[in-house]
Request: fold
Amino acid sequence: MPRPKEFNPDEALEKAMQVFWHKGYQATSMEDLLTAMSLNRGSLYATFGDKRELFLKAMDLYCTGVGVGSRLSILSRPGPAIPLVHQFLEGMLEFALSDPQRRGCLIANTAMELAPHQTDIAKKVSGRLQHLEDAFFKLLTRAKQNGELDKNKNPRALARVLVTMMQGTIVMIKAGTPAEVVRQTAETVLSILK
Amino acid sequence: MPRPKEFNPDEALEKAMQVFWHKGYQATSMEDLLTAMSLNRGSLYATFGDKRELFLKAMDLYCTGVGVGSRLSILSRPGPAIPLVHQFLEGMLEFALSDPQRRGCLIANTAMELAPHQTDIAKKVSGRLQHLEDAFFKLLTRAKQNGELDKNKNPRALARVLVTMMQGTIVMIKAGTPAEVVRQTAETVLSILK
DNA sequence: TTAATACTTGACCGATCATTCCAGTATGGC
DNA sequence: GCCATACTGGAATGATCGGTCAAGTATTAA
Reply:
């Protein structure tokens, strides 16, 4: 048995994810990461690999733990579908708006910063977006069957609108749009479901 | 009279803007810029100031010359308003989709990369977004007066939806979403005007 | 107690970063 | 033709980048 690590890798990765989320990939230096994770170079490289590997692990953690992924379960709850959509989007919105650092969403940030230049990262990003779209699609399909959604509506197209809308909202929040304007805009988009 | 420059500052700035647009601020090195602008360090710093100043000038050029700004005139044409909205958005969409580099929009890119960390840049970005929103608003107000747009619709809210939608679309394009999906999604959003 | 293991630490590497500066040189006004 | 001007080209700056490595140390298994 090896000597145990003096730090908690999960907590360290969480810290790294926070920094990447806040500053982006390029603007984050290994120095930043070492400070935030409060460990030394050797331990970092031995545990997480290089900067890129660490970033990929941080993305995974974000998806499962903190970001949209963690709230995605709302969309698979039973009961009336449309209220669930509202509940989910309102939760995401307030979460993003309440962040004084305006970090937005790591997935959206990465889509903008890295996806066009790195195909594997683009795949990861679009996989997550697809996942979100599918969750909306399932729920909207149910809504259509329930009669909550008009029969001539297209659940797939609407799901894509919701995803696109979320990404756009993140851009607007990062640009400094006032919270009330963001809320009203989101509400207006949701009228498309009626 | 000084000795005339051996390069065209406008053309050089255009090149710089292209690089910033493609790679973002952080990922662009002065080396990249020097190569693209095909001039030497001395001339660059003497003519455009440091990297940050050059970027701000590149943003200005983008707004007036290449980006949304240059196509904004479509929105102030006379005649039926709603078709103009469609025409404008379709133009933007095809422009963004036809770019093999998936550069998106320099304003949106900057909103994501720099706006949360630099208040002056955030101001510049949100100013441009506001400008776009106002153009939509004016047109939609006219549409409402014309009877092209339903009386119970809110032009301000709809204008904001269109702006948010455009930003979201850029994220989706950068994430690698197929062109046909992007087109269908945009079309679905526009059903909100009916 | 000892040997093997592997985590910790910080010095160190070459590369690259943005920026400065100084010759060298071409131009315009006289 | 000559001087002042200022553009050009590239060397050089110190800082910082991501990443490596060897020495020191703590832990476990025997």
Observations:
- DSSP finds ten helices and no strands in chain B.
- Residues 1-4, 6, 29-31, 41-42, 45, 50-51 of chain B lie near DNA strand C (CB under 10 Å from a C1').
- Chain B has a mean pLDDT of 94.
- Chain B touches chain A through 47 residues (CB under 8 Å).
